[in-house]
Specification:
The chain is about 65% helix and about 5% strand. It contains 21 helices and six strands. A six-stranded mixed β-sheet has the order 2-1-3-4-5-6, with helices on one face. Bound molecules: zinc ion (2 copies). Keywords: Repeat.
């Protein structure tokens, strides 16, 4: 990337091709901010925007995941006049909106397109799946195979199987997995196996999930064992957790998340000596927990970052007071802190104090300060939400009457009127 920047800087005459190549390079190297800045400069310099540069900018906005850039790119595309008529741009835009948490906007783009292909449908199905709208994802697939001549590909099935797994539609998931192999001759890849293990595991069919992994015709990848370990957390299965974790420790010796997950599973079963064994292993291997952090995007497009227990935000005092007030109102409505979310062996007051400092709670309190009743609060989080934060988000959506969208490292949670789109399984 450094060499590319050097050459680009020295070019005396930069044409569309050079600018576009730079945008694409940044996207491919996961540097979305620079990609968008380059795209903006290219436009300001008066160069024509075409499909390739636009798709680069759209992918960058998808990587960034914020509303501000997503809407900006959409405006540019509309000014240039290539959304409805260009199936490549349209499909990329559906994917972008899905990844940025605007599923209704993704739908609007889908509906406005004059022509659709397998990418448009797959992006829509995956988007709906990530937002917990499994029924619509399945209907979309049925429409695609029933009413069009478009053949699904392996990506389509990842979206479809994800939808089934998030909605715990075990029978449907099994059916589509066979359909993919038998009807469409698609050889399952790692990603499909991950989906099936996740499907069985979430539904609590732990033994079956383990047997499925053992019978796989290819060597199970880390993702497969990770899905199994994740299911063990939901269903508190310490025996299978140990099997999955041991394989993961071999495949990803530095994967901090696996150690943390296993120690959480032991902790919630009260197996404190096993917890300290896992901690010891982490210390020996020099591994540290990734700090948990949340971002909140305000209406003016600014991102505010929060760390657990931190006072760094300029309005920190006000935010903490707002959080206290919100929690007091939730308690009137029956909220009890989920103390088992804290996996340290400390007393209950201390657990409650730690829970209050979780980064997404600070973010949501700030969100309440910055919005009116009926408005939406958007939060991004780098790790999985704990059970207590999930309860708080659910209740804030009802008591404070806000719609809340949280994107964690896996999926979107839409909290509305006391309910979450994930149905309590995540
Ligand atoms: Zn939490
Ligand atoms: Zn949820």
């Amino acid at each position: 990337m450094g060499s590319a920047e050097g050459i680009f800087g020295r070019l005396r005459e930069k044409d569309e091709v050079a600018w576009t190549a730079m945008v694409t390079c940044y996207v491919q190297n996961a540097r979305p901010k620079e990609a968008l800045e380059t795209f903006e400069r290219m436009q300001r310099a008066g160069f024509a925007i075409d499909e390739v540069s636009l798709v680069g900018a759209i992918s960058a906005a998808a990587q960034l995941g914020t509303g501000k850039w997503a809407h900006w790119v959409r405006d540019v595309a509309e000014r240039v006049g290539i959304v409805e008529d260009n199936v490549v741009v349209g499909s990329a835009m559906i994917d972008m909106y899905g990844k940025c948490g605007f599923i209704d906007e993704a739908y609007a783009v889908f509906n406005s397109m004059k022509e659709r292909n397998v990418y448009s449908y797959s992006a829509m199905i995956s988007g709906l799946a990530a937002h917990g709208r499994a029924g619509e994802a399945i209907n979309m697939f049925q429409e695609m195979v029933g009413k069009t001549s478009i053949e699904p590909n392996w990506v389509t099935f990842i979206g479809l199987l994800t939808a089934c797994s998030h909605a715990r539609k075990v029978e449907e998931g099994r059916y589509y997995f066979s359909l993919m192999k038998d009807e469409y001759n698609i050889t399952p890849s790692d990603d499909h196996y991950v989906c099936v293990v996740d499907l069985l595991g979430r539904a609590g069919l732990m033994e079956e999930a383990l047997d499925f992994v053992k019978a796989m015709p290819i060597e199970p990848c880390a993702g497969v064992w990770g899905a199994l370990l994740g299911a063990c957390r939901i269903h508190r299965n310490t025996t299978i957790a140990q099997i999955a974790a041991n394989r993961l420790f071999e495949l990803e010796p530095n994967g901090v998340g696996n150690y943390v997950l296993l120690s959480n599973i032991y902790a919630s079963a009260g197996m404190w000596s096993e917890v300290s064994d896992v901690r010891k292993l982490m210390r020996e291997r020099g591994l540290k927990k990734t700090p948990s952090t949340s971002w909140l995007e305000t209406k003016d497009g600014r991102a505010h970052q929060f760390f657990a227990g931190d006072n760094r935000h300029p309005r920190s005092r006000e935010i903490k007071d707002a959080l206290e007030e919100i929690l007091r109102r939730l308690k009137d409505d029956g909220y009890k802190p989920v103390l088992s979310s804290i996996v340290y062996d400390v007393d209950d007051d201390e657990k409650e104090r730690i829970l209050k400092g979780h980064s997404e709670k600070l973010a949501v309190a700030f969100g309440v300060l910055m919005t009116e009743v009926g408005e939406m609060i958007r939060i991004m989080k780098n790790l999985r939400m704990c059970e207590d934060c999930h309860v708080v988000m659910r209740m804030v959506s009802k008591v404070m009457r806000r719609e809340i969208v949280v994107r964690d490292n896996m999926r979107f949670h839409h909290f509305q009127n006391g309910e979450c789109s994930c149905g309590g399984f995540w």
